[in-house]
Amino acid sequence: MSETTPTLLYLVPTPIGNLEDITLRAIRILGEVDTVLAEDTRTSGRLMQHLGLKKPMLSYHLHNEHQQVQRLLERLEKGETMALVSDAGTPGISDPGFLLVRECLARNIKVECLPGATAFVPALLKSGFGAERFTFEGFLPVKKGRQTRLQELAQETRTLIFYESPHRIVKTLEQLAEVFGPDRPASVSRELTKLFEETVTAPLGELARNFAARAAIKGEIVLVVQGHKEERPAKESRYKNHDDRDE
Q1: Which keywords does UniProt give here (predicted)?
Q2: pTM of the predicted model over 0.85
């Protein structure tokens, strides 16, 4: 693909909460494309209405993406322009998008991804655990392979970032405390950029007790866990390998 090849598919980040967190370029692209592919047309429809935009919308989500891809590719190859959005944040990050992008690139259909909102970045920076080296794990396996994955991550020295749902956060915190140790520092952020935004930073064991005691937990959650601190051996005395001169 050359620089003059027109872009046919745009990945457009949408606000994770505060509607002011959409870029001017994102608004322009949403207004220019022929069709908007939405994870939930009702959710994205409210955003489009807020922006004063009217565009044909198609449902594109986890449960229909394999059935939709071929039809979308055919339309894109005919020159139709599309914007892919998720309910919140950047499409393709723990949301549908990868499959369509891969198939577009295989057919030399030009794809552009706009920079914009994504939940794990503010959660990472607010944790205070350092962003020089981190690993994004997304959602842990719900059942099969969950314990194995936790065991693999226990010795990871980089800051760990997870997405979690409100109804599973207590179980996840309890399991992490068991595998990583209850004293491992962690941070739970929920309702980011919204009116009731909250970030709680404490050891895993304390976080598990905190959230288990709550009557209700609302909002999508980002969990940040400090990486494993490697224990360095104490410096040996410089006289260890020398004869004691006083003898």
Answers
A1: Cytoplasm, Methyltransferase, rRNA processing, S-adenosyl-L-methionine, Transferase
A2: yes
Provide φ and ψ at 82, rounded to 5°. Answer: -135, 150
Which residue type sits at 70? Answer: Q
A 10 A CB-CB count for 233 gives 5
Sequence-distant (6+) residues with CB within 8 A of 62 are: 95, 96
Q: Record the tokens describing residue 66, joined without a space.
A: 């394999």
Q: Identify the residue whose tokens are 């807020």.
A: 50
Q: What's the rounded Cα separation, in Å, for the pair 143 and 138?
A: 15
Per-domain residue ranges for the chain? Answer: 9-113, 119-225
pLDDT digits (tens, 9 = 90+) for 23-73: 999 999 999 999 999 999 999 999 999 999 999 999 999 899 999 999 999
CATH of domain 119-225: 3.30.950.10
